[in-house]
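2024-03-11 09:14:02 INFO worker-7 job=invfold-0412 stage=load source=structure_tokens
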């Protein structure tokens, strides 16, 4: 009898899968010590970003059943 594979909850909280199958996450360096960053830097960090192809394989293992 095989066991079910468990989804990594830490990964689920940080990443989501788009309708086209891309993995999306928030930009880093946004919330902490924002006073040291320029307005332009903060503006560019606002939206979500698509995870690179090299990191995608690792993250998709943690997202087990989201694909």
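2024-03-11 09:14:09 INFO worker-7 stage=emit residues=67
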């Amino acid at each position: 009898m095989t066991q079910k594979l468990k989804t990594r909850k830490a990964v689920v909280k940080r990443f989501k899968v788009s309708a086209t199958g891309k993995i999306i996450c928030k930009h880093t360096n946004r919330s902490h010590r924002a006073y040291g960053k320029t307005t332009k830097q903060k503006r560019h960090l606002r939206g979500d970003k698509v995870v690179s192809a090299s990191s995608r394989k690792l993250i998709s293992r943690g997202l087990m059943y989201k694909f």
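2024-03-11 09:14:09 INFO worker-7 stage=report msg="The chain has three helices and three strands."
2024-03-11 09:14:10 INFO worker-7 job finished
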